[in-house]
Amino acid sequence: MKTIKEIDISGKRVLIRVDVNVPMDKFQNITDDTRIKGILPTVQYALDHHAKVILASHLGRPKGKTVPEMSLSPVAMRLGRYLKKLVKMAPDCVGSDVEALVNNMKTGEVILLENLRFHQGEQDNDENFAAALAGLCDVYINDAFAVCHRANASVEAITRFAPECGAGFLLQNELSYFKKAFDNPARPLVAIIGGAKISSKLAALENMLKHVDKFMVGGAMANTFLKSMGIDVGRSKTEEDLVITAGNLMKKADDKGVIFYVPVDAVVAGSQDAEVDIKIVPVKEVPEGSMIMDIGPATSLLYEEALADAKTIVWNGPMGVFEEEPFSKGTLTMARSVAESSALSIVGGGDTDVALHKAGESERITYISTGGGAFLALLEGEPLPGVAALDKVNMAGN
Ligand code: ADP
Ligand code: MG
User: Fold this and answer.
1) Among residues 53, 136, 151, 288, which is most buried (max CB within 10 A)?
2) 352 lines ligand 1 (CB under 6 A)
């Protein structure tokens, strides 16, 4: 894959697909601008190398229609503040007005195109829409890792029309850290997997078992593993249809010599909402009417010990219902254990990311992925459509 550094961008119109899909409150105030900060190295590099910078992104789910509340203009303002220059907001992302704007750009100027998803063509990976976008540029750069698992026009089809294509620093970083963890990692390689469901991560679980030395599970998904071992988990959230699958996964791990850890104790509650009857119990003694809400302190300690010799750690998924204080300890303790480890640590997942920030441990993690779905897709071992498209054009000598 070619990177932005290998392409002559001086004086050229450079369209950078970024992901600045930031959360906003009802007054369109940006509530977290991590994603805006994440694109600064690539944008700044393009400016320093005398490009005309055209940025494209989606925001929210407008479903192919113009929704004023989903305009990217607040992002243009915030970005302008970081870049210390005007970021001009385009009225749309394609069309004659936008073409005129782009063709009048001077070197060192930045334009942010309006929300790509105001056009249905974006998510349909429509070639006409992709060609119209590509027509705005001399060089196309993909720096939107978080959407690379989707074949959208601005990440996939566009590579068939843009004169030259490459990757930005954020995308490059994501892929190279992931490679470090999965292709020839320093061992032991330990995976920590938690979160809501086995079903949403089944392919990732299967693939990870091929790579890791130790496997630790937590969160609601651990309940189904416990159940497959014949443990009665009371009213805990489980996936009945996956109990056998869970058992098979554990058997597979065993056959491969992967050490598989399940929680030994749990924080239980009588009801998730009322937070009543909160107790710490061994997993074999979950009261009939109770639900497992978090891993218990013995499990936290066990997992911390098991992490002690890790050289590489990959973590996705919280250990419990961390959003609620009484059930947050397992996840926060795990964040600290991973942070304190000297291993190369890679963490990904929308909720896991939130939990890490809540724990105040994001600085001590080697790399936090900016893509929830895309990170999971990497864990599944499948090529990401956006990345595959870049590889393909560059292989063809484009
Ligand atoms: P990520 O976004 O990091 O991949 P998931 O979306 O898979 O993580 O899972 C996060 C959700 O799982 C959180 O909302 C959390 O409350 C929930 N969860 C974790 N443990 C439990 C549990 N024991 N019971 C119910 N929900 C849980
Ligand atoms: Mg999630």
Assistant:
1) 53
2) yes
CA angle 16, 79, 2 (to 5 degrees): 25
Which amino acid, one-letter code, is at 110? V
Catalytic residue at 360? no
Longest dimension (CA), the chain: 71
* Gap between the Cα atoms of 109 and 214, Å rounded: 50
The one catalytic residue in 336, 373, 381, 392 is: 373
What atom of ligand 1 comes closest to residue 353's alpha carbon? 3
| Calpha distance 252→398 (Å, rounded) | 43
- Ligand 1 atom with the smallest distance to the CA of 218 is 20
Interval 276-295: pLDDT, tens: 789 999 999 999 999 999 99
Q: Quick check: 7 pLDDT over 60? A: yes
Q: CA-to-CA distance for 379 and 352, rounded, in angstroms?
A: 15
Please compute, for residue 382, the number of CA atoms within 13 A of its CA located in the half-sphere on the CB side.
Answer: 15
Q: Which strand (E) or helix (H) includes residue 316?
A: strand 312-316
Query: Which residue among 60, 64, 350, 372 is the active-site one?
Result: 350
**pTM metric for this prediction:** 0.92
* Nearest bound ligand to the CA of residue 263: 1
The answer to whether 350 is a known catalytic residue is yes
Active site residue 187: no
**Cα-to-centroid distance, 373 and ligand 2 (Å):** 9
Looking at ligand 1, which residue's alpha carbon is closest to its atom 22? 220
DSSP-derived secondary structure for 20-74: ----B-TT--BS--HHHHHHHHHHHHHHHTT-EEEEE---S--TTS--GGG-SHH
Measured CA to CA in angstroms, residue 334 lies from 47, 316, 359, 388 at distances of 40, 11, 9, 34
Beta carbon of 195 within 6 Å of any ligand 1 atom: yes
Residue 137: other Cβ atoms inside 10 A: 24
Contact at 8 Å (CB) between 244 and 290? no
- Find the helix or strand (DSSP H, E) in which 83 lies: helix 73-83
